[in-house]
Design a protein that fits this description.
The protein has 68 residues and is mainly α. It has helices at residues 6-26, 38-67. Helices cover 75% and strands 0% of the residues.
């Protein structure tokens, strides 16, 4: 029986999609022994997220201003 909530199922689906994309891009799954600077990669992802959020906020503000 799957007792996950809808939000949990959707989150799990997104994680599975990202894993599949990573395997496609890198030819394997995430491995802690890979020679990556994980802290820097995480920071870069966080910075990208900030940019995406700002773009969304600006879009929403423009939509709201257009309705005024």
């Amino acid at each position: 029986m799957d007792d996950r909530t809808i939000a949990e199922r959707r989150f799990d689906e997104l994680v599975a999609e990202r894993r599949a994309q990573g395997r496609k891009t890198y030819g394997k799954g995430l491995d802690h022994d890979d020679n990556f600077c994980w802290k820097m990669m995480a920071l870069e992802e966080a910075l990208d997220m900030g940019q995406y959020l700002m773009a969304h906020i600006v879009r929403l503000e423009a939509e709201i201003a257009g309705r005024a």
